[in-house]
Amino acid sequence: MKKVLSGFLLIILLGLIWYLFIKSYDYTVRFEANTSPGAINQTLKLWDRTLDTIESIEQKGSLYHLMQKVQFNDSVHLYHWKIKSLTDSTSKVLVNIKDVDYSFINKVKVPFSDTDFEKRSRKTVLEFMEYLNEHIDEFKVTIIGEEEMPSKYVAYLPIKATQFKKADEMMKNTSYLSQTLLHSKTILDGPPMVEITKWDRKNDSLEYNFCYPIIRSDHLPINTEIEYKRIFGKKALKAIYNGNYITSDRAWYALLDYAKTKGIQVEPHPIEIFHNNPTGGNEIEWKAEIYLPIKESLNE
């Protein structure tokens, strides 16, 4: 009995040492959301701009882990957001929270009372949940599956921008691209497209070609900023995105998660085809086709 009791006391002692001195957080909040991890990642970064943060939220290694520092009066709270995909359209979020200056006293109080720290933590996460749910209502992603991406000859402008500024840069260049082509009587061959050539998912930066599909001819405008190429058709994963084109990248993340679930190797270079003039109407009715090219097998 003495050995059993000694062992039991040792386990309790080790548990207390871990809880009070080793455990890296003071409190945890969990919730589920009806969207993909990528959409949560991007919404977190936008929401972070609205807070009194000491520094910008930091992505830790992957889009599934983010670290955030928030100032509350004289306290600095660390929020470690962990996101996990549950299905094609649902995710689980775990938030480990720590008070930088009062961590020890919080750990002592948390098991015995509902502290101000706990209340503040729940309130902050709830505020984000409300912000996220409002955003989720503003767009829709429908996974279609494998499909052949169309081949198009395009006139394009190469652009560098952040993901959030992608649509703004398109709007800035629409008039120049369309008017130059119209002036030369170039025949259009479909709605505008975007071809992502480089996607830095840690820093949310892009290099992409803003394209107008055209009929190739010998009378295309030259000595301009416009370049020409053919985007070749290939097997791809396809999704339909409905919503403001500023956040069409939500479909990119959904396709990445779908590819991972299905064990499909893809190239992280989405292609978007925009079917609406993004200047009016109900944004949820705006439509874009999103393609994520499938890597070609060496055996093919």
UniProtKB/TrEMBL annotation:
Pfam families: GyrI-like. Residues 142-295 form the AraC effector-binding domain. Signal peptide: none annotated. SMART domains: AraC_E_bind (SM00871). It comes from the Bacteria. This is GyrI-like domain-containing protein. It comes from Croceitalea rosinachiae.
